């Protein structure tokens, strides 16, 4: 490690309180779907305070709606923004970098089940608790201050740097698509998702769907003449479970052969009926299904639809009242990358020089915004982030020491990939 690099790492260590404080201020913003404006404002003013040039990038624009990676969604995208901060190059000769993180969080569920209020960030025993503490506001704070540390140490970069804080990572991927459509891209892209200090090489495709069924309403005393739409969901869900099993054993790519049950179906919402004593006239269930890299979205969508319709054919009522299958939100395909891409090697070297050990490779069973950069960007993109627990669950928390490690590794990466200018 050079003396310049050591100086930068000392600066990052000195910024640790700022990193944790910024994380807490972001966690205090309950940025669930449609409610991201507060977190976007906190991010925007932090970037400005640290002397980045910022722009708000709306989800609602012609360039986004016509982008091949755009996923149609049933909720409003009007007035909802991503925020980008840029640090221009002060010389030539380096390689450009983009650091991406998502500001949106999933619902906290029943807050009463949490040890601490989910949107009141609370530190205990070296961990920070709160919805989004791990996924992924601490990563955003770490990457922002890693970039800031370069300048605070008295350096510039020999290539442009972009910081993109996006929304809709948890439902469509449209935020990252919007920033790409606005022209923000780079030769290396790092995303501090909370999968730990590993280099992500493979991720699955993910799709969302919903199935609507009609029944025949009656009073329960004549239940024999009614058809309960909620109960008619059962055979369809069972058929999807069989489809999930089939997918787990169908053309499994090499990267996933040692992963137990990589393909997962989740039925996440079920709604229907309107009265305990009335046979339910309607029901809808919503789900998420993953699929292997190399599988085309249209192909998996057609297979899912055929699975539902085949199951419906076996039921006298459903055969005459076919369920409606719709698709919205995620339509993200998976991808696999070689583990020795130049950006990955540089990142691995940074981790090694700080810890003395090589970074493990990570094969993911979910999707991230890497998908946008892989399919529609120009760079080598991966995730490397802090250690978190219970993301999307109760008592989500992030290990603060690991957040500091991400900030140090990213700062070192920027120094080596973009090249320092004194
Ligand atoms: Zn995430």
UniProtKB/TrEMBL annotation:
This protein's UniProt keywords: Cobalt, Hydrolase, Metal-binding, Zinc
Alphabetical list of SUPFAM superfamilies matching this protein: Bacterial exopeptidase dimerisation domain, Zn-dependent exopeptidases
Keyword presence, Metal-binding: yes
Keyword rRNA-binding: no
InterPro entries hit by this protein: ArgE/DapE, Bact_exopeptidase_dim_dom, Peptidase_M20, Peptidase_M20_dimer, Peptidase_M20A
Gene3D superfamilies per UniProt: 3.30.70.360, Zn peptidases
Domain Peptidase M20 dimerisation: 205-315
Molecular function terms from GO: hydrolase activity; metal ion binding
Transmembrane portions of the chain: none
Known cofactor(s): Zn(2+); Co(2+)
UniProt record similarity statement: Belongs to the peptidase M20A family.
Protein name: Acetylornithine deacetylase
UniProt source species: Desulfopila aestuarii DSM 18488
Lineage: Bacteria, Pseudomonadati, Thermodesulfobacteriota, Desulfobulbia, Desulfobulbales
């Amino acid at each position: 490690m050079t003396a310049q690099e050591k100086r930068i790492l000392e600066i990052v260590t000195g910024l640790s309180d700022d990193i944790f404080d910024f994380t807490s201020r972001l966690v205090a913003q309950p940025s669930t779907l449609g409610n991201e404006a507060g977190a976007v404002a906190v991010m925007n003013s932090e970037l400005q305070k640290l002397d980045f040039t910022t722009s708000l990038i709306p989800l609602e624009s012609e360039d986004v709606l016509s982008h091949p990676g755009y996923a149609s969604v049933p909720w409003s995208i009007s007035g909802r923004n991503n925020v980008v901060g840029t640090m221009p190059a002060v010389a030539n000769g380096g390689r450009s970098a983009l650091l991406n993180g998502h500001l949106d969080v999933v619902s906290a569920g029943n807050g009463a089940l949490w040890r601490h209020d989910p949107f009141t960030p609370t530190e205990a025993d070296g961990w920070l608790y709160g919805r989004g503490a791990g996924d992924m506001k601490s990563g955003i704070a770490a990457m922002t201050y890693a970039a800031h540390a370069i300048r605070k140490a008295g350096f510039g970069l020999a290539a442009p740097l972009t910081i993109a804080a996006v929304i809709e990572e948890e439902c469509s991927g449209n935020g990252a698509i919007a920033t790409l459509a606005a022209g923000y891209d780079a030769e290396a892209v790092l995303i501090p998702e909370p999968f730990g200090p590993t280099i992500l090489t493979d991720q699955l495709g993910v799709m969302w769907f919903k199935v609507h069924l009609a029944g025949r309403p009656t009073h329960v005393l004549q239940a024999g003449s009614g058809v309960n739409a909620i109960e008619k969901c059962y055979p369809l869900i069972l058929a999807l479970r069989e489809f999930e099993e089939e997918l787990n054993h169908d053309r499994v790519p090499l990267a996933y052969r040692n992963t137990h049950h990589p393909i997962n179906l989740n039925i996440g919402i079920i709604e229907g009926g309107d009265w305990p004593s009335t046979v339910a006239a309607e029901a809808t269930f919503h789900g998420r299904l993953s699929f292997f890299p190399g599988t085309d979205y249209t192909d998996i969508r057609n297979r899912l639809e055929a699975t539902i319709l085949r199951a419906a054919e076996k039921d006298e009522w459903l055969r005459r009242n076919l369920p409606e299958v719709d698709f919205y939100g995620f339509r993200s395909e998976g991808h696999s990358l070689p583990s020795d891409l130049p950006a990955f090697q540089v990142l691995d070297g940074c981790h090694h020089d700080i810890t003395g050990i090589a970074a493990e490779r990570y094969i993911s069973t979910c999707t991230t915004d890497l998908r946008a950069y892989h399919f529609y960007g120009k760079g080598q993109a991966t995730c490397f982030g802090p250690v978190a627990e219970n993301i999307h669950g109760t008592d989500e928390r992030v290990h603060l020491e690991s957040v500091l490690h991400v900030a140090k590794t990213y700062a070192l990466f920027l120094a080596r990939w973009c090249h320092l200018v004194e």
